[in-house]
Amino acid sequence: MTTRPEESKEIRYLYRQLRTLTQSYILPEQWMAIRRIWKEAKADNQISRPYPKVHPLLHVMQTAYILAQEMSTRRSSVEAAMLYHPDLLRVLDDDFLQQTFGTSACNIIQGLKRIGELAQKGGGTESENYRNLMLSFAQDGRAVIIMIAERLNAMRHIDDYPEEMHESMARSAVMLYAPLAHRMGLYAMKTELEDRSLQFSQSEVYQEITRKLAESKQVREAYISRFIEPIRAKISEAIQEPFTIKGRTKSVHSIWNKIKNKQLTFEDIYDIFAIRVIIDAPAEKEKALCWLVYSIVTDMYQPNPSRTRDWLSIPKSNGYESLHTTVLGPEDKWVEVQIRSTRMNEIAEKGLAAHWRYKGIKSEKGLDEMLTQIREALENRSDDDDFKMEMYSDEIYIFTPKGELFKLPAGATVLDFAYAIHTNLGNKCVGAKVNDKNVPIRYRLKSGDSVEIQTGNNQQPKQDWLNFVVTSRARNKIKQTLKENVQKLAEFGRDALMRRMKNRKIEFEEPYLMRLVKRFKHKTVTDFFAAIGEGRLDTNLVIEAYLEFLNKDKTLPASDLAIFSAENYAYDAAEERVKQGKDDVLVIDQNLKGLEFKMSRCCNPIYGDDVFGFVSVTGGIKVHRLDCPNAAQLRERYPYRVVKARWAGQGEGSQYTATLQIIGKDDIGIVTNITSLISKDFNVNIRSIRIDSTDGLFRGFLTLVVSDAHQLAQISKKIMTVRGVKQVIRE
Known about the structure:
Ubiquitin-like (UB roll); five-stranded mixed sheet; 731 residues; Hypothetical protein af1432
């Protein structure tokens, strides 16, 4: 591996900077050990240089510098970062690392090794399952911090990598590393990763927003100045401590998200900037001064109560502390104001590492507490981002031979995994190869296992399979197949009995069937015929019992015989509901027999909707609303499978689930007003309520159980009368 003169110069410069930054916590002999490792690896040709413009040693030093300078990490993290190179990770011995750098650094490097092995398996590095599995492999949360720093370093020097890699690097930066940085409170790095990703993935969008920000810079700065000056004067009168007030422009990626998700233009976004008040106060006075500044700001400008966020009383799990409010400033523009201390601001910029540097780590117990909080931050699900983590102890992540990744609950077996892939694979499963080792279907899997399912043509689900599977999917599929098998046996058994009776010229009369079921101690007719079909019940015994009942009834007096009137006989013609012909109509009736039909989930039709039927490939019929989003496509592509349909009878007594989307102004009590109205005026159940509130806009999703479309229309009309509601849309 050759080193160019300019690279040697930068390596020497960074080395001096790192020695200065870490002199209080990394001993000279440990730096000498790191230098020796790199020197020996280079001499033995163990270090490769796959990208001509990326020098391996310079890259790890840049990453270590980010950790020491920008993330405030300490000894073990910086040492591990200096050894974070794939070639070194393969050759470094754990015992050597333990003796040279200690347990903490060794644990981090082991985590980095495991993640490196995981990455080689593939599995879609941007998927949520991959993120969760990666974190479980890391074990030590500081390994994740190093990975974030390494990716940030790579994005800062992305032009040094081949152009064909830029798209995948940008995608993983925004989908994997930025959410991780957010979860750990590294907001500045999260923003930079997102912006740099957008710069390379959608350069035209990035350049356009950047240009508009530059054009509006003077206007924004003038407005911020008008907003800040009266606040600055009031705060100066009220407190003695030093403070700063500055404006903060929303990131390019954040602006793009708002434009894309809310279908706005750049000019429509009113909260492009925010104001940050930072008070240089001692710890014991921080909260009181922050609340004092809050009262000053809200006295001067009208606050939006729904946009107040108190992370002073209860900080976020990643250590973030701040007080946020949104107020109506001059020219009726909404402005977000963030109030925090100098300490809080550094934690907001540098995350958990800065939080724990303020607290001080003076013992192993303190270190354990820090690592616990890092893990809790990574697992926390309460934040309003799209990176929802599950608890490691409750989940495992399994690879297929092709590298696809599946999430299963802890304790899942080979059979659970087979059913997770496909029902037929589960039904025919006889075992598996787990990491190239043969195991039975009961074998319990572990995270990271690579599993190849083995099948047998003669295999069928067994009743005892229900005793060891843990997933509801596997359990339901096993029960369904067992039930289908029983049904097939029952049909076979009935045919066998009828055929034997016909051979003996005995006419079978249905009234005796339940007496036979009871005689042979079966709970249902299906079980009775299935026992015949499986051979557990001899047809000759059944016929003898039948003749016994028949002969006994023939000896009874005529007065004892049951008399049936034609009035009590009901002919079921439901099987003829669908006939051939262009004017044929499917009549939808809850009591319809002999024909399988289902309400389509894409549009959830309810009684009273204008509907049509669509014949599925399995032979059943799915009922769609005429205004279903898929209706036009179905009619265009498969006109021969479309059937006219109408509802039969009355909707009374039936129950259907329907969802309404409600949009309006985010006023206090709007949800209570809507639910109270429904409870008071309509006799319906509210199954679920989901509410989103953003920038003064209320968006609610209300799932109801109604009897028909007319009732749903009445409810929608009534909701529109609630103050603040602008629109009601049926989902």
